[in-house]
Amino acid sequence: MIVYGSSMSPFVRKVLAYASEKGIGLESRAVGMADQDPEFRAASPFGKMPALADGDYRLADSSAIIHYLEARYPEPMLIPAEARARGRVIWFEEFADTILSACGAKMFFNRVVAPIFLKRSGDLEVANNAEREELPKLLDYLESVIPDVGFLVGETLTLADIAVASPLANLGHVDVEIDCARHPRTAAYAERILNRPSFASLVAKERAFLARARA
Ligand SMILES: N[C@@H](CCC(=O)N[C@@H](CS)C(=O)NCC(=O)O)C(=O)O
Q: 24 and which of 19, 29, 174, 186 could share a cystine (Cβ 3.0–4.6 Å)?
């Protein structure tokens, strides 16, 4: 099974960390933004990453891919069956994909993607505004729902934790630290989840790659 994309994308990282937590062996194939690789384009009609190829079955979108994998490999269950728990897990995934990642993308695109990969200046005002005005409110929300110990939903790791931690990893790539005074639970939670082997090896590789690209 092949996953196309770069793990610096929170959506790709979410799929790779999820597969690692499930013990699903995936081959990660690097493609860049607007990549014309025909296999990738066949799996992702609009050229967005991630995309999956499982034999002749192809699928785009991190959530679609994860739902496919969860149905194919039910154990360990990372999307709970119980109605309320499942609803909460999908809420956190949506929050992470559409609200937290959108805010993070303003910083990541303008501080990293534009200058390093597109060789042009990013709009630093957009990035700084996202960091100062948008992000603190999102972290305030997380601070109100993250428990002192454990996970976002129930007693075990779920897709909710993987989805929320993934865009938090990008903050490290744009030199944004979660303020331990204002958001102590969120800071400890991010460290807890991102230190799991499923995330730690990906993030370490990303950091090394960015350090080389910036040098
Ligand atoms: N909803 C999609 C979002 C995927 C997405 O927007 N990926 C970005 C990278 S973070 C991308 O490929 N952008 C390139 C483009 O829009 O052309 C998912 O969950 O997979």
A: 19
